[in-house]
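Hey team,

Sharing the Glycerate kinase run so nobody has to redo it. Sequence (379 residues) first:
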Amino acid sequence: MKIILAPDSFKGTFSAAEVCRAFASGVRRVHPGAEILELPLADGGEGTLDVLRGATGGEFFFCASRDPLGRPLTVEFVMLPRGEALIEMARSSGLALLAGSERDPWRAGTFGLGLVIKSALELNLEALTLTLGGSATVDGGVGMARALGYRFFDKRGKPLDLEGGRILSRIARIDNRDTDKRLAGLKVRALCDVRNPLLGPSGAARVFAPQKGAGPEMVEKLEQGLANLALRLREDLGREVTAVEGGGAAGGMGAAVVGFLGGKLTSGIDYVLETLRFERALEQADLVITGEGSFDDQSLGGKVISGVLDRARNSRVPVAVVCGRHPGGGPAAVDSGAACPLKVFSGDDLPVKKAAGVLLDLDDLSLLAERAARLTGAR
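Structure output:
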């Protein structure tokens, strides 16, 4: 019997690798002789560097950078064996780098991310992949662009060197004549798991800025600023970003990848599963156990579980989901087609934990994985 363990991290508690180990201990109590393949996953956001480095043998590099408020810090990125740099935006521009009282997208910027990209360019890259997610910023990537040599001017022709969303409405012209020449011809892509556009009711400012500390008045100012940035990108650089699916990701960084770097956006989980050769791993598999902290409506829209389920369905391999919470109740069958039955095993099924309001620990995840291995019919 071959069983694949392919969970996401349980955000704020356990890494995907820790979850894998807990699942494995539970599965072995049911199938001690099974071949168990541990494949920790991520959807292109936080944790992706660790997942891909562990799976591909990539190498960590360290460089000087800045946090969203301009304070110095050291940031790591990964060089994959194929000459590709993998940079996690959250490590230089992440919300987790700020105290709660410091969250302010009017001042928080992405200059530090640009410094990390510059350091990676020293390694003669063939490709650059950015992971978007967990950012503290809504600056449309202007800070990153400034670090890479783009120059921004106000209506009087004076250079702008402000950080954060406050620069956006003041931009009257963008000049790209001094940009880093090593960007030319570089294959750039960004991994994201949202489809929000740059502007509008579901855009970067109105959906994500409140999560980063913006009040209603600031949200509207950021919306106006991002609209101005989109206009300048179109008129000064010939890049149209308002219709880019995912352009609103990470405070407009999705649009910046297209507008400033000439790159493209792609599904994070698709990239991770392709890099890990997940479809090949499914060959001869009898069961897949995946999971995340909360299995809800968003889980089936571009997240780890949706990517795993889509591929398992194609290979006719049954899937079990282990999660901390399942608002629909569980264990419950989810309609994923008769060829690929799926069951959900949730912390909500542990009455003592649920009644006490206690968070799951690794022993609980092991127990739920044991139940999944026992009760989910392998093919």
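The domain at 48-269 is CATH 3.90.1510.10 (Glycerate kinase, domain 2).

Ping me if you want the raw files.
A.
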